[in-house]
# Entry
Amino acid sequence: MKNPIIPLYRQSDILIIRSENCFVFDSDNKRYIDFESGDWASNLGHSNPKINERIKQQVDILIHDGLRFRNSESEQLSLKLLDKLGLTGGQCAFLNSGSEAVNLGITIAKNMTGKKRVLKMDCSYLSAFGHGQISDNNSDLINIPFNNTDSISNIDFHEIAVFVFEPGNASSLIKYPNADFIKAVATEIKKHGGLIMANEVTTGFGRTGKWFGFQHYDYQPDIVSVGKALGNGYPISGVVISSRISELFKETPFRYAQSHQNDALGCAVGLEVISTIEEQDLISKGFEKGTYFKEKLIQLQTKHPDIVEIRARGLMIAIELKTTEIADHIYNQLIGYGFLVGFKEKTLRFIPSLTIELKHIDELIEMIDIIITGLNIQILNQCR
# Structure
């Protein structure tokens, strides 16, 4: 039967029918260990019981109330999020997707500063549409070469409204900017009246071993966009502004409204996500697991020179292989053996739930070892 879904992106033929914690199951009941957390969203594991229970409770209370009214769920989530971000006295708005959150953040920055240009690192992905879209038609975007401090002198910072800093994903390749590079950019932005926005859609809520990725750097953002893990798979995102930007907003307000803005159900989910992370101490546990994961990969690298680089921060990890062909071979073999990982160019990506168990990390490492060993034996035999 023809797939009735518009092919806007490539899908495999695997039909997923249910999920549980770090596992998904296909229509043949084959189990896959998910080292991608869905689309990097299920930081607390798929179908988390606490999140599911909160959804069930909230559905019977209030789902959607309309833009004319306040609801306690959105206001409570705002206060929680501002506290975790260190932006007490600021304000929040809640949307549905990370792309929406990034675009609204940029719109706010342009409106507050009266400037039009947006600065980003050349490897950053900002959004699927709008201000942040990576497109030749988006003339407002200025790309700065990754970790190239010398290139800063070529930029006219007077015209930049906002530097949108993505602290780790780097277009799915998992690259972490140097602290000195970010400090230099942030200093110039502030000197010339621009704003700094942290794009935490991927790196937020414990992913990098801290609550948020920007906390690995020496600066405080004016605006933060969040998404993905805020809903643990439920579609909610948010834009957070500092108290200073909140005061400026009073002077230069603008209207932005969509049907499901600040919906009670999504905000209730966000509250439960933050509470669960706190109660189960998942930030420190995720950091410890990430350290263990990295150490295991380093051991694997000493055995296999095909692994040329390991990039890791918390449970946001990547290995770069010698060639795209090797990476592609490992990726496809892993799927066959029941492991879901990320793959782009020469890079394999591991972004598991914070609830992943060490034994499942061990299983993945062992399988990669087996696959690379088998590939090298195969190549050796072909050369004889």
